[in-house]
Structures are given as structure tokens and as C-alpha cells.
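An instance noted here:
***
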Amino acid sequence: MIVNIENRAEIRNIVATVSRLKGVAEVKLQKDSEFELISRLPYTHEERLESIRLAEEDIRAGRVYSAKEVRAMFPKL
């Protein structure tokens, strides 16, 4: 998401709201720009390929859960 707001306090408020809505511990602002990065999500092409490779490995190894099982494991999300 690209945020183009002059007031830094408003940006911090948006970041906190996105953190709560996405259920992540923190949302970081990249350098001084208004472009938000959510930690632990793949952004570069290489990171995305590695994420896909790991997911496929998990599927082959049977490390998969239904949405119902995930909700039971993480009830506060």
C-alpha cells in the first residue's frame, strides 16, 4: 500500500491500524518514504521464490493445516 500523506502522525496512526488489522506485530515504514512494509512478507522476486519453495516443501511433508485448525491454534488473530 502506498501512503502519500504529509503529516507523519497520521502515517503512524495508519501504520498502527494496519498492524492491528493484519494481525502482525509491526508494520515498518521503509526509510523516510511513505511505503509500508509488513515484516516477514516476501517482497523481492527471490524472497517470493524462496517462500513458494518452502511452502511446496511443507505440502510434500504433510505440514498443512485447515483454516479451522489454524484458528484453533491462534484464537486471538
Residues 1-41 form one domain. Residues 45-61 form the longest helix (17 residues).
